[in-house]
Specification:
72 residues; mainly alpha; 3 helices; 0% strand; elongated
Length: 72
């Protein structure tokens, strides 16, 4: 159980690191010439979508692990 919790925290931290590394430096101002506030809004939207996908994936992994533990 503790290994599972540790693994989930590691995956959450890795996901956050990937998000900061790839979304943070991205700028849409160069391509579309938009306002800085809209640039930040697009980054937030992308980040929220990626966070939702990441939490969904981690939830599926958690359910799969616990179903496997119950069966054995």
């Amino acid at each position: 159980m503790f290994a599972f919790v540790f693994a989930m925290w590691v995956l959450i931290l890795l996901g956050g690191g990937v998000l900061v590394l790839f979304i943070g430096p991205t700028s849409f101002e160069v391509v579309y010439d938009i306002e800085p506030i809209l640039n930040s809004g697009l980054k937030v939207l992308i980040a929220l979508i990626l966070i939702f996908i990441w939490i969904f994936a981690l939830t599926k992994i958690k359910n799969w692990i616990f179903k496997r533990q119950i069966k054995s």
